[in-house]
Amino acid sequence: MFYLIGLGLSDEKDITLRGLEAIRSSTRVYLEAYTSILTVQKERLEELYGKPLVLADRDMIETQSDEILKDADTRDVALLVVGDPFGATTHTDILLRARVLSIPTRIIHNASIMNAVGACGLQLYNFGQTVSLVFFTDTWKPDSFYDRVRENADLGMHTLVLLDIKVKEQSEENLARGRKIYEPPRYMSISHAVAQLAEVEDARRDGVLVPDQTLAIALSRVGGGSDNERIVSGTLAQLREQPPDVFGEPLHSLVIVGRRLHHLEAEYAAGFAVDATVWREVAQKVYGCNFD
Q1: Do the annotations mark residue 219 as ligand-binding?
Q2: Is residue 96 marked as binding?
Q3: Which whole number is the average pLDDT over 245-259?
Q4: For residues 127, 160, 219 and 247, what is the CA-based torsion angle, rounded to 10 degrees?
Q5: Is 117 annotated as a binding residue?
Q6: 91 marked among binding-site residues
Q7: 149: annotated binding-site residue?
Q8: Tens-place pLDDT, residues 116-165
Q9: Is 79 annotated as a binding residue?
């Protein structure tokens, strides 16, 4: 059996009992180490799980999936994923490969940012398409996400924006020269993300992300009851002005608030506001919320 197991969002204690049983029955256990990060080192996971973990980077999962799946038709093999297994398309790919090899599979779910985002007070059924925001370079500034945000905005829906992480990435020069030299890990901050959103709005000028008229909520390390969890709400302009330490440690996510904002959603999120008075004023004047 090949197990794909979600670890949740915080630390080693977020594993489900079903997931823990599957790990302990497995002859090999891999830890996916590039689509997200845990707040603890793998040694703490190994101590609780009672199993050594093999770190699996992007190259291993995408090009060496047969090695991971080896003998999984006759013995248990597990791949551990931060959050929920279906938070990244890579994991669908390896399941399809297992199907081709006639290997039985089992998915064990856990919390992910896709549902933990509800901690900010916005209702999950009011969210539209989720988008990803990547680090811009001097020559590459993809802005297709803007169209998805606009589609959500046209329906009044909230947009969850997943911020880029760079783990075990090579520079263009090292990649061109075939040198296995990797850049230090980078995690996009809220300030960086808001600056990029403003840059795209300036270029597009469709009024989707007007900084002083668009409410947004920044989230850091949500889920699992982490002591490091941080939620901050405000206009995009306000969030851009905040010092980095206001938002806490990575990973960060950002929610663009949709115009169908319910007054109860607005009131709950006001508890995290940089300035609750400004939050309520924009919610009332721009979003049409009635707090009476």
Answers
A1: no
A2: no
A3: 93
A4: -140
A5: no
A6: no
A7: no
A8: 999 999 999 999 999 999 999 889 999 999 999 999 999 999 999 999 98
A9: no
